[in-house]
């Protein structure tokens, strides 16, 4: 009698091959700027010297003015840009993402070469400190608006009403600060105004299930019309009483404000800039390191799963939309208390939509959205600097730059921009 040995099944683990996803968007974008560099710096080469002024007369520590050869500098930078583009293409071929720091270095090198080319032969040096100061000033409301957009959309509510929140904050802060003589009251009132606009967004978009994009657009039109009407009827008739708010005082931080270049840019500012630094950190830390952030992201990604573990989805969304409005409203106060010093009709001039583009450009991440807002502020301020140094580039082209970058961001040409899965989708409890 013969016996056969039992067949022992193979117990070795099954290894699944990981699918390789190659994204060529970063190297393609780099390649476009390399092509622009070659055309600009070689096809329209400028031979001469470019000067960069690193210090102002009021700086505690004076740095020497830097002078470089325009053509040699732009040629060397172009070679470095080509090398970074090649490396990005290699990473994409290996199915790896291009690191964020590479994008930042590439951008800084390109802008340095562009400024060198633009200032070639000009008797006026490039004011580096002034360029950075203007960037921060123009980016403050964009950063607050973008942070409000990140908080709202991470919770699943599309916040097209950032423009209205900024404008409402600007109007209410101007009037309340003028009446009370206190910029502190103005800042608090601006946050309240942003919350009120958000309450309407939450009520119609979350409770009554109205399309959130439509609600946001309607709220923007409503706030523009309401503030314009009140400005004409109230503020314009008595500007000394109702539209003359106290300006935010400058609070230089000892020692840090004396650091060359970055000292005045980062540490010799008003309280609202310092609140901006704090807000960026708190939103980032809250979203990714706390229970609140986990709950917020869960209702924005998978509300059904969040509901099954006891999270009230619509309540979480509503109150976080209100928080987003408070953040954006604080940004609106910067127009009247920190920048302009008085309210005027439609003074936000579409900056809320630029902030929304920064949210998309930053991939719904507070740090990336802040960097995108700084980029838009830099592009806006650059046209002022170019006109000062007598650049051959028409200022109208530089004014177009933030909107061109916005189109590229929305089109997804700057990388994969995936919104939270439930963003804009109302949740109906089954």
TrEMBL record:
<keyword id="KW-0812">Transmembrane</keyword>
<feature type="transmembrane region" description="Helical">
    <location>
        <begin position="371"/>
        <end position="391"/>
    </location>
</feature>
<feature type="transmembrane region" description="Helical">
    <location>
        <begin position="347"/>
        <end position="364"/>
    </location>
</feature>
<feature type="transmembrane region" description="Helical">
    <location>
        <begin position="318"/>
        <end position="335"/>
    </location>
</feature>
<protein>
    <submittedName>
        <fullName>ABC transporter permease</fullName>
    </submittedName>
</protein>
<keyword id="KW-0472">Membrane</keyword>
<keyword id="KW-1133">Transmembrane helix</keyword>
<feature type="transmembrane region" description="Helical">
    <location>
        <begin position="100"/>
        <end position="118"/>
    </location>
</feature>
<feature type="transmembrane region" description="Helical">
    <location>
        <begin position="213"/>
        <end position="231"/>
    </location>
</feature>
<feature type="transmembrane region" description="Helical">
    <location>
        <begin position="157"/>
        <end position="177"/>
    </location>
</feature>
<dbReference type="InterPro" id="IPR001851">
    <property type="entry name" value="ABC_transp_permease"/>
</dbReference>
<keyword id="KW-1003">Cell membrane</keyword>
<feature type="transmembrane region" description="Helical">
    <location>
        <begin position="397"/>
        <end position="416"/>
    </location>
</feature>
<feature type="transmembrane region" description="Helical">
    <location>
        <begin position="71"/>
        <end position="93"/>
    </location>
</feature>
<feature type="transmembrane region" description="Helical">
    <location>
        <begin position="271"/>
        <end position="288"/>
    </location>
</feature>
<dbReference type="Pfam" id="PF02653">
    <property type="entry name" value="BPD_transp_2"/>
</dbReference>
<feature type="transmembrane region" description="Helical">
    <location>
        <begin position="26"/>
        <end position="45"/>
    </location>
</feature>
<feature type="transmembrane region" description="Helical">
    <location>
        <begin position="130"/>
        <end position="150"/>
    </location>
</feature>
<feature type="transmembrane region" description="Helical">
    <location>
        <begin position="183"/>
        <end position="206"/>
    </location>
</feature>
């Amino acid at each position: 009698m013969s016996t056969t040995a039992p067949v022992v099944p193979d117990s070795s683990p099954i290894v699944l091959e990981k699918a390789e996803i190659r994204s060529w968007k970063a190297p393609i974008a780099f390649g476009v700027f390399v092509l622009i560099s070659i055309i600009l710096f070689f096809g329209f080469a400028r031979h001469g010297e470019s000067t960069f002024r690193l210090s102002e007369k009021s700086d505690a520590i004076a740095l020497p003015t830097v002078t470089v050869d325009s053509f040699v500098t732009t040629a060397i930078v172009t070679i470095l840009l080509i090398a970074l583009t090649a490396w990005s293409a290699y990473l994409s071929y290996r199915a790896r993402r291009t690191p964020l720091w590479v994008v930042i270095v590439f951008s800084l090198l390109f802008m340095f070469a562009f400024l060198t080319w633009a200032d070639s032969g000009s008797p006026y040096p490039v004011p580096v400190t002034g360029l950075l100061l203007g960037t921060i000033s123009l980016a403050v409301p964009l950063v607050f608006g973008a942070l409000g957009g990140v908080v709202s959309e991470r919770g699943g509510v599309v916040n097209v009403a950032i423009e209205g929140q900024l404008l409402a904050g600007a109007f209410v802060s101007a009037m309340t600060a003028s009446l009370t003589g206190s910029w502190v009251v103005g800042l608090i009132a601006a946050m309240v105004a942003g919350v009120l606009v958000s309450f309407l967004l939450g009520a119609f978009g979350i409770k009554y299930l109205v399309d959130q994009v439509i609600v946001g657009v309607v709220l923007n039109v409503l706030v523009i019309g309401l503030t314009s009407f009140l400005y004409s009827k109230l503020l314009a008739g008595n500007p000394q009483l109702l539209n003359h708010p106290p300006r935010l005082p400058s609070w230089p931080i000892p020692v840090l404000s004396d650091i060359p270049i970055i000292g005045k840019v980062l540490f010799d500012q008003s309280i609202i800039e310092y609140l901006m630094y704090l807000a960026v950190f708190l939103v980032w830390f809250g979203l990714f390191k706390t229970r609140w952030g986990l709950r917020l992201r869960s209702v924005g990604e998978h509300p059904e799963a969040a509901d099954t573990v006891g999270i009230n989805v619509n309540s979480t969304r509503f109150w976080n939309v209100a928080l987003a409005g408070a953040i954006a409203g604080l940004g609106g106060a910067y127009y009247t208390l920190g920048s302009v010093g008085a309210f005027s009709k439609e003074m936000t001039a579409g900056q809320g939509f630029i902030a929304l583009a920064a949210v998309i450009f930053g991939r719904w991440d507070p740090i990336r959205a802040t960097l995108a807002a700084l980029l838009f502020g830099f592009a806006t301020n650059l046209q002022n600097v170019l006109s000062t140094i007598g650049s051959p580039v028409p200022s109208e082209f530089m004014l177009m730059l933030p909107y061109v970058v916005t189109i590229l961001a929305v089109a997804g040409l700057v990388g994969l921009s995936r919104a939270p899965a439930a963003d804009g989708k109302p949740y109906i409890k089954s």
